[in-house]
Amino acid sequence: MTAIFPSEAWLTELESKLNSDKKYSEVAKEWEGDLLFKIEADGNLKEPLTFYLDLWHGTCRKAEYNPNAADYQPVFTLNAKYSDITAVLTGKLNPMTAMMTMKLKVSGNMSYMMRNVPTVLDFVRVAQEATKEIL
Amino acid sequence: MQPILKVNLTDNSIEEFNIPQRWQEDFLGGASLAARILYDSLTHELDPLSAQAPLLFLNGPLSGTNGPTTGRSVVCGKSPATRLWAESHMGGFWGAELRKTGYDGIWLTGKAPKPVFIWINEGKVEVRDAASLWGQDVYQTQESARQQIQIKGARIACIGQAGERGVLFSSICSDHGRMAGRTGLGAVMGAKNLKAIAVYGKNKIHAADETRYAALRSEANRLLKQDNESRVMHELGTAGAANYAEYMGAMPSKYYHQGAFPNVDNISGAKMSESILVGQSACQGCVIACGRVVNLGDGAKRKGPEYETVVAFGPNLLIDNLEEVTRLGELCDTYGMDTISAGNTIGLAFHLYEMKKITQRDTGGLELTWGSFTAAQSLIHLTARREGIGALISQGARALGAAFNAEEEAVQVNGLETAYHDPRGVSGMALSYATSPRGACHNQSDYFFVDWGHTQEKLGIEYFDRHAQAEKAANVAKHQNWRTVFNSFVMCIFANVDPQMQADLINAACGYHWTIEEMMKCGERGWNMKRLINGRMGLTRANDKLPKTFLQPYAEGGAAGFVPNIQEMLSAYYEARGWDKESGMPSEEKKKELGLDGL
Lengths: 135, 599
Known about the structure:
The structure holds 2 protein chains of 2 kinds. Chain A is of the alpha/beta class. Chain A contains 6 helices and 7 strands, in the order E-H-H-E-E-E-E-H-H-E-H-H-E. In chain A, helix 1 (8-18) packs across helix 6. By secondary structure, chain B is an alpha+beta fold. In chain B, 39% of the residues lie in helices and 13% in strands. In chain B, helix 11 crosses helix 12 (322-335), helix 12 (322-335) runs parallel beside helix 15 and helix 20 crosses helix 22. Chain B starts with a strand and ends in a 6-residue tail after the last helix.
């Protein structure tokens, strides 16, 4: 199954894939950290968008679409423009390029991030596979 | 830029050299400008350890301005290791302090009859006796020189015992372990009986447009503080990249013969920050502060190792203990030896021992067993003293290999040992190593960053798959041109500064009106200038090659099975460069385009 990004259905699909993908389960088995994505309005996205994922030992324990950001103190907060996050999701922009060129701004424990680059890259793979098309 | 101080150490004669304005506009500063200045002096016949050999310390137009990572300077000449162009960049505070003396460079020739040090105090120049400093390590030397001159704020660049004794990968050190490490210019300094250069000044450094420069500098530094890469460098140091490099099979282990290092977590920058790190250190004006300050449990604050040193004395020797790696790096620094070349050449000794080409009879009884800290430590001592097998190691990997009839086992290009970014993991490094003007260098084009994903849209530096080959040749050439701009500024390549911001900084500082294209043309001119110098010193297309080891695939890890096709990459590269495919030199047309015709 795939879904249109951005939508609640897409986030549900991503959560489902994260909990069923065997490779992700193996690669991310040590990962302990929740993520808050803040997407800036840009192009077809008219209002800022937020979504939250609690990732734990190769599974997704919780996903929430447009939560109240103040309710969370995540391990990582990721900020990006809509056009850049969609470029990553459609494979047009390498996720490491997005980070290294500040198209994806990362706040959080950089030590943990650098230790776990394979998990980060595999998370992106799963997110790409969950994405049918872009709004 | 300000004048260059010329000192002939044979007779202590001193004069000033005013850099022609045309050269400044064509080459900007730093290494490229040094290449233009030294062009006539650097010949095939010149012995780099002779009195005739020049040694030029030079700043860039932004040195000491508190611009983004511009507190650096460069040392240039002819390398005793490669007998080709030598440039080695030094962080710390020395270059900025030199600028405050009223000079932007020091051009040394001749040979002092006995050990001396140069003291430049607010423009007043003295050549002082250094008998009491000779034999001291780089930290003792700085302390002793400072005591003699009685000025606490003075900055000192010096050599250790390795430079005195002619180790061909001797470094020049300033401050706490800020090294001009590569190409062996510490040995050139030692051959001139010059132990140190102390500088102190109070001159104010002015920009052509002070108000605009201050605003740009402030904005550039603000952006750097927020930058993802800068934050990784600050929090984890350059070794923060170890996990990622290992994942890609780009971090060599066991002297470039093992494609994976499962214990990478034990030696990474992340591990350092979670264990022995007690602080960060920065060069003049730098907001990144990638330098590590560590405590190994004895209360002493030590310089922690950066990525190259971590790999040189960690995975390269199959050592997975961060404290041991730190101590080996510190020992090299103290003697004044480049950790990249020292680690590489010691790694070769271990490798040849495993091949039974070196035996215990050669090592004086030492067992060169992979993972042995004590063996590595002993070899560092022997190398710095040029004793026993250390005498061979002190001449570099190529010479060590040749001494045991195994030159092809040495992982080097043109006599400079490769750094720790394996082209089997990141293929762009194949061209970076093969075509760098100073041998197998990773700083003339740290293309591994591009292969990791760091593109530069405004310059057309695109992302190609890390195992793409000839199709990325033009991209590598562009990246080399850009890094040549950095080395002219002289700016640290860790500064993720937007190219338009770079051009704006130059324009505000120098009163130029450069576009990005003109700035990049300056980089291309500098790259070609160094190629022409190397042509004068005997380099041909045949010098553009990779060591045999890089043409054999790893059996394991993130790069398993891949080898670069260097000949195809080179052909595409010469095409992109506008170089003659036979000679490997810039064509007459290219020289004319760059204003280098006649050279």
